[in-house]
Input
Amino acid sequence: MGARRSADSVALTDAPATTALAVAAERLAPASETPRLDAEVLLAFAAGRTRASLLAFPERLLEPAAAARFAALVARRALGEPLAYLTGEREFFSLPLAVSPDVLIPRAETELLVELALAAIAALAEPAILDVGTGSGAIALALKNARADAVVTGSDSSGAALQLARANAARLALDVRWVESRWLEALGAQRFDAIVSNPPYVHSADVRGALTFEPRLALDGGADGLDAYRELLATAGGHLAASGVLLLEHGHDQRAALGELAGALGWRVAAAHDDLAGRPRVLVLARSSA
Output
């Protein structure tokens, strides 16, 4: 593998961007659904340029150092490593977030969870919101950015994840409180107007392929994918305000099972929402007695 990377970098040295992109896109085709786009993003990152600059001046030659960085990045992407980990950044709800293998990469479909949470607190002044399993801080930061008056807390059991979330908050100048906690154990008697979570919900047997690059703690939901929901549904009610709601992202095939589990644990389904692709994605739950 090292010899291949070395040969690739030598071949790309003093090559124009058009050549480098063509070579990279061909190599990435078996591993990516968007090989050309991936190649453009990685080349821009390796060369310290924007994609717009690359496309506007495709005849510019690659310097040896940039060619070597690009070849190494392409080799890693060809093995399935996510693009966001290679560049160290992913945009979420129009916010540029630093990401690392310590956190789950924010997905576009999770933006629905943010939109629904914002709708749930729209009529409230200074609402209190908790993001459980915050990871990079994506959901908590998006909520705070959209509602400056909100009192937002992000919790996670991973100290490394919280360190990254704090760094993202500092870079974006967003005031969010971060708490290291296994689920809601460290939240004491605090109550919130909305609790949101994108918990681990992948079946243990399905954590394979490209998913193995992401932290298993943030993905593995147990044999049936519902372990995290059992924890949340058993404890979240004690941390909600009287009219508060619990918003949960879930897998496309889990809605019925999650709704049944919620009902058995004293919750009612207030609303169910599909993502832009038409897949079941979020349940909004209220306590049955509310």
About this structure: Residues 64-78 form the longest helix (15 residues).
